[in-house]
Design brief:
heterotetramer, A: alpha/beta, Rossmann fold, 2 domains, seven-stranded mixed β-sheet, 12 helices, globular, B: alpha/beta, five-stranded parallel β-sheet, two-stranded antiparallel ribbon, 14 helices, 7 strands, binds thiamine diphosphate, binds magnesium ion
Chain lengths: 323, 366, 366, 323
């Protein structure tokens, strides 16, 4: 049966709530409305107003009360309505959610999942297309996951909720409507493993979330040029699956990292840094980055010029191969 | 700066919102809010509301036709916006949220420019310094601090301007308006916090937003007077705002106004309000329509006749047509603008990114 | 959840803070706050304050001797802390800021463990679940949300516990307590927001913090009752808190309490208060000392005699000595703990960092 | 005359306020108290309560009103009392301060300087020793500067205040008491240039802020081992002086990046990514990183085990040379 990413995540939430009545889901408009992307559709009707509820319009409040609820013994899933609106919650995420298990010397556990629809490509107004994953991945104490397929949407969400550490779950919103012939429930690889989505020998495209599909399209297109590209889906951005990166580089010798976030200090920086550190002699050309520009996210009509696309990826592949 | 702490009782809102016009147009005198508007101005208020509604409707249509990516309608809130903005002078500053088409039209901000944000052409297309009208602000409540800082800045050099910031009932829950009111109170900044309580934050009704008796009861916690008005009554809104503005201008400090209104349309064109509110509720709300009410009042005052009606309709239609044409004709943004105004003296690395895009565009790729 | 909006007038603080004891110990009956404490409990309150002051002084000395990196004294605030914490049951939870030694001692939290944060040994050294006493929280006001979430969590399963969060006058300006009170009001969370208004946020006096008539006037803006008490009067503080706690426990929701007190010491041992407040002000404040006042009261009630005095002094000295010894004897933290409790299932990359440190330490380097 | 970094910054603030009466200084405890580090000492007495003032305790409020003041026409300098307390202001910094010049199409200029004492090494309690610079450097629209000497403290602060773009000015608090024989006023190199603090031929130590002195000490110590180390002080973290990095690598072939912030996605990641991208064939060994661990900042008594020090740097140099 064809299932979209949004449906898969919705099913994961429902199944987790069914399996464990300590799981709560809350945020802005997640109740009656079912979320602005309908990812929480039906949860309130099914589990009641206390298991799935709307909050006042205050993101720090949402994350901060999630921490308190988790301290009490609930397993909160909190939705940030959009990427750009996680910023009011930054202090609670960085100073408390990330640190409290450590600063409490293990006495406090925070099995909190923060859901964040992120990234561009849907023609939204400003502040609705941000890719803040590097902020979280730089913050020790947080796990950061992002699915690139409906199957992973289901399976990784279940894993995130089951994880006793705090997890930032980044949902590639432009892929909410992407379909798969998936049978739910499905269990894919453990989230911290990067997965080779396509094997190849000439170069590796490292990608995640919204760019998995773009990378696969680029790899297809590259076939015509006679280039065999491997596509590595990171899935977990923190921790990074360093071993999988090294493995792939040992096979292909060339890497292009792709993400929507700005280039400077985006995930590509860390991927490049680790690869040159660990696979120095395997690299036949520099790790290249195909990313958003170092500018604010542009207006909708210009986002196609900003976002990484197949052409830019192929261009980088060519530069890498010719190096 | 807050040497003399005001009496709490003076700061609390009255038990009933200020209300001057009944839905049928009957006018009630209120000695605290005498009417200081001449016939021309009364008609002007009406005209502005009608034009607002027409342009608003046009924007919804433009969105349906794919000309705008999304649009947040102010239908039903015309009196709240027009009445309040009209109480300012041209030197005063407005810091809007994303729903203040009516306030913008009072300031003669070009609607075509304003709508470019929703069209996705540019992130903004008006110079705030021309009409003293700030950029639309999407992150809820954040602009309250800009309005407060601006007002502090004016006060620091005895510039008598006042700033007014618009936000919604939902916005009152965010930390930023709280901090803004705290600063405003302490620095006696001449800023008016104007809350359009349209009963919803997307799907979340007011009672899920706060347990306060009214939103205006928040003001006392900052040493601000909390006013309430019937936000569908343009005269009441005007009168209450006027008083608060003059108070602020005379150095007595900031104020908070809650205007009771109702969002007649969806939250934005992307929203489906049938999921969370009933037809009955909507029908009930329609009975308090701000435009009909003012028309009834003007009729009772013999200020409304066919000539005026035609004139207003013409103007509304003309403006809507201009907006429509303007949007259809507006150029797409120039991709090279991505790199503009990010830094005044961009680095080499940044310039390389710019050049890469330029080369792509030249190659006919993008 | 906030179906029945309360009357504003019920939520406003009374014009005078609740006050039961004069500085000379004279007791005033207040029918709204009858005393429900027996002689043993009255003496217990006194004992807890004296022990608090003694341990507090010891902590300051330990800092001077280099045993603590820094310390934030609660001197002068003993009544506010002891009186409020004493109004809770053992099942109730406390979410402290960084100044609540007194509240901690009421809960029998080991002061040696508590002070490890200031010693720099560990970031905390007590298990919050043992005494239902949360970690000290440095980022101002943030813990208000944890207390609120916790209380929501309790209410969700009809657990009758109440949570109490402490923060300061300065803390009321941050966004987080604002959002916490909003949530608490909407969800009727059984949480008490207990503000120790000690007149300063480091060097910033209250009048720079807010223009509100009183801090307790903030409560109405969230639909919470705002109470005020003389925070140097342990009986008044106890009585007011008790009422709020029982109200919350019975399902009537959260409350806000402003306890008027004074920070007799520097903000922390790193601070130099002579830069911003006068000797005269300090001398004036000393006249309202909470401990002397309670002693006077006990004396009037014939509950204070030499035996009791000696007993209390002994206990205070003993506790202080134990704390002193405990701090001197406490091991330094184990560097390998840096890597503990960061992740339950650390990655290889993380483990390599851990191994690098281990190797360094083995090599005698670190 | 010996001048400390704190005194140099204080002098720069005073001189800037003297030179331009649109310059305002505000924050928590910056007035009467003169700041918890006395960096604003004397400014209120000299310039009055309106030019240098205390605010309520609210960091988002401080940055948000700074934006409003700048829109009006003032040149605000806002102090965040400590690194860890910038997080409540994250939304105002990232969504507005960084973006407004661009989103206003150049009509709004924001000459705002945000001063942030940062980093560890002073035995402080938690949340007082954070190194959040990567968050800002990843955010397009912000300039990020950090002085490593008293001379730069003065000169770069003047440049930051004079800059019409928003600047995050990171002050290495453990170096506030570091002295130099500087004559003030002093004008050093333009802030965006990285500066070679010590020439060397075997490897380059890339550093900034608090680690400049540590790197210089390491370079001294390396002399004994017969290693000639170059020390490159970045000074500007955004933009990065890529050319200076490449230059240095072309000379030495080996690079060790040093910072206090956690390793993953710290500035070292970007430095490594750019160097391997631009100087691939000049690199004789991987760019190595000597940084804080990927853990929360530890309690004071353990910070020495967390912070990069001379031994760790020399160890990395040795690994680099032996590679
Ligand atoms: C910080 C932030 N969080 C969430 C959103 C998403 N959002 C946009 S409008 C809105 C509701 C706002 O309600 P209200 O303040 O009442 O204003 P109204 O839309 O009714 O005019 C929400 C949640 C946002 N724009 N900014
Ligand atoms: C978010 C944040 N900003 C700034 C600080 C620095 N700081 C520590 S205590 C303090 C003053 C707090 O005053 P108040 O809330 O009145 O509590 P008190 O110290 O008087 O008990 C400040 C500004 C902080 N810890 N957290
Ligand atoms: Mg609303
Ligand atoms: Mg205080």
């Amino acid at each position: 049966m064809a299932v979209t990413l949004a449906q898969a995540i919705n099913a994961a939430l429902a199944d987790a709530m069914e399996a464990d009545d300590r799981v709560l889901m809350f945020g802005e408009d997640v109740g009656r409305l079912g979320g602005v992307f309908r990812v929480t559709d039906g949860l309130q009707a099914r589990f009641g107003e206390q298991r799935c509820f709307d909050t006042p319009l205050a993101e720090s409040g949402i994350v901060g009360t999630a921490i308190g609820l988790a301290m009490y013994g609930w397993r909160p899933i909190a939705e940030m309505q959009f990427d750009g609106f996680t910023y009011p919650a930054f202090e609670q995420i960085v100073s408390h959610l990330a640190k409290m298990p450590n600063r409490s010397r293990g006495t406090v556990k925070l099995p909190v999942t923060i859901r964040i629809p992120y990234g561009g490509g849907i023609g939204a107004v400003e502040h609705h297309s941000e890719s803040p994953e590097a902020y979280w991945a730089h913050t020790a104490g947080l796990k950061v996951m992002t699915p690139g397929t409906p199957e992973d949407g289901y399976s990784m969400m279940r894993a995130a909720i089951a994880d006793d550490d705090p997890v930032i779950f980044m949902e590639p919103k432009r892929r909410y409507w992407m379909k798969s012939e998936a049978e739910l429930p499905v269990e894919t690889e453990p989230p911290r493993q990067a997965v080779v989505r396509r094997e190849g020998t000439d170069a590796t495209l490292v990608c995640y979330g919204p760019m998995v599909r773009t990378a696969l399209e680029a790899a297809e297109a590259a076939d015509d040029e006679g280039w065999s590209l491997e596509v590595l889906d990171l899935r977990s951005l923190a921790p990074l699956d360093t071993a999988a990166l090294i493995d792939s580089v040992e096979r292909t010798g060339r890497v292009i990292v792709i993400h929507e976030a700005a280039m400077t200090l985006g995930l590509g920086a860390e991927v490049a840094a680790r690869i040159q550190e660990r696979a120095f002699y395997h690299l036949e050309s520099p790790v290249l980055r195909v990313t958003g520009f170092d500018t604010p996210y542009p207006p909708a009509k210009l986002e196609e010029y900003w976002l990484p696309d197949v052409d830019r990826i192929l261009d980088a592949v060519e530069r890498s191969l010719r190096y | 700066m807050s040497e003399d702490v005001p009496e709490a009782i003076e700061l609390l809102p009255p038990s009933e919102p200020v209300h001057l016009l009944d839905p049928d147009g009957t006018y009630h005198e209120d000695p605290d809010h005498p009417l200081d508007l001449d016939d021309g101005q009364l008609r002007e208020l009406y005209r502005l509301m009608v034009v607002t509604r027409k342009v608003d409707r046009e924007a919804i249509n433009l969105q349906r036709q794919g000309q705008l990516g999304v649009y947040a309608s102010c239908m039903g809130q015309e009196a709240a916006q027009v009445g309040s903005a009209y109480a300012l002078t041209a030197a005063d500053w407005i810091f809007p949220s994303y729903r203040e088409l009516g306030a913008a039209l009072v300031r003669e901000v070009d609607a075509v420019g304003l709508l470019q944000l929703y069209r996705g052409t540019w992130l903004s297309d008006h110079d705030p310094y021309v009409h003293n009208f700030g950029l639309m602000s999407i992150p809820i409540g954040t602009q309250a601090l800009h309005a407060t800082g601006f007002a502090m800045g004016a006060r620091f050099e005895d510039n008598p301007l006042v700033t007014m910031v618009y936000f919604g009932d939902g916005g009152t829950s965010e930390g930023d308006p709280h901090e803004a009111m705290t600063f405003a109170g302490v620095f006696k900044a001449p800023v008016i916090f104007f809350v359009q309580n349209n009963q919803y934050a997307i799907s979340v009704p007011l009672k899920r937003q706060t347990a306060a008796p009214t939103l205006a009861h928040k003001a006392v916690g900052y040493g601000l007077p909390g006013y309430r008005c019937d936000g569908n009554d343009v005269l009441a809104t005007y009168a209450v705002t006027r008083k608060a503005v003059e108070r602020a201008r005379s150095g007595e400090g900031p104020a908070f106004i809650e205007a009771l209104t109702y969002r007649m349309e969806a939250h934005t064109t992307s929203d489906d309000p049938t999921r969370y509110r009933s037809k009955e509720e909507l029908e009930e709300a329609a009975k308090t329509d701000p435009i009909a009410r003012m028309r009834n009042y003007l009729t009772q005052r013999d200020l409304y006749d066919d000539t005026f009606e035609n004139e207003v309709d013409e103007q509304a239609k003309d403006t809507a047509t201009t907006v429509r044409a303007g949007i259809y004709d507006a150029p797409h943004g120039d991709p090279m603008e991505l790199f503009e105004h990010v830094y005044r003296d961009p680095s080499g690395y940044f310039e390389e990114q710019r050049e890469r895009l330029r080369a792509e565009l030249a190659g006919g790729e993008g």
